Amino acid sequence: MKRLTASLAAAATALAFAGAAHAADLKKGEELVNKGGCIACHGAGLDKPIAPNYPKLAGQYQSYLFHALQQYQAKHQTPLYGRNNAIMSGMVAQYNTQDLQDIAAYIASLKGDLYIRDEMH
Ligand code: HEC
């Protein structure tokens, strides 16, 4: 019985990891953000934008970030809808949906001014 419990626990752990890796890959998100040069405008830690009308990103909700990124992409592909911003539409054109998930997950994990979910971690 003890052995069964242990192997069930191991299986559950493996499943949990597999699930997380599929949903979003923080490491990949970090690489994409670093390569993408996002800090040039959104600032150090994506929390210190270089202009007052440039948004802080660090710690924003993952689903919000993902949706925002997708909307810039939609605008780029079909001019009739999506978020209208020439800079960001150009920035996200190169990424696929999984990339946007990874980027959003990584940015959401950064503890910036917008990060208000300590109780959940
Ligand atoms: C050249 C400057 C510049 C660069 C580089 C840049 N951004 Fe942006 N970003 C902006 C501006 C300006 C906005 C606000 C656009 C608007 O009004 O919709 C913005 C908005 C966003 C938003 C929406 C935020 C919100 O609260 O709605 C996200 C997410 C975002 N950027 C992510 C990124 C990522 C990820 C990268 C790197 C791949 C990046 N940005 C690179 C200038 C930049």
TrEMBL record:
<feature type="domain" description="Cytochrome c">
    <location>
        <begin position="24"/>
        <end position="111"/>
    </location>
</feature>
<dbReference type="GO" id="GO:0009055">
    <property type="term" value="F:electron transfer activity"/>
</dbReference>
<dbReference type="InterPro" id="IPR009056">
    <property type="entry name" value="Cyt_c-like_dom"/>
</dbReference>
<dbReference type="GO" id="GO:0020037">
    <property type="term" value="F:heme binding"/>
</dbReference>
<feature type="signal peptide">
    <location>
        <begin position="1"/>
        <end position="23"/>
    </location>
</feature>
<dbReference type="InterPro" id="IPR036909">
    <property type="entry name" value="Cyt_c-like_dom_sf"/>
</dbReference>
<keyword id="KW-0813">Transport</keyword>
<dbReference type="Pfam" id="PF00034">
    <property type="entry name" value="Cytochrom_C"/>
</dbReference>
<protein>
    <submittedName>
        <fullName>Cytochrome c</fullName>
    </submittedName>
</protein>
<dbReference type="GO" id="GO:0046872">
    <property type="term" value="F:metal ion binding"/>
</dbReference>
<dbReference type="InterPro" id="IPR050597">
    <property type="entry name" value="Cytochrome_c_Oxidase_Subunit"/>
</dbReference>
<keyword id="KW-0408">Iron</keyword>
<keyword id="KW-0479">Metal-binding</keyword>
<keyword id="KW-0349">Heme</keyword>
<keyword id="KW-0249">Electron transport</keyword>
<keyword id="KW-0732">Signal</keyword>
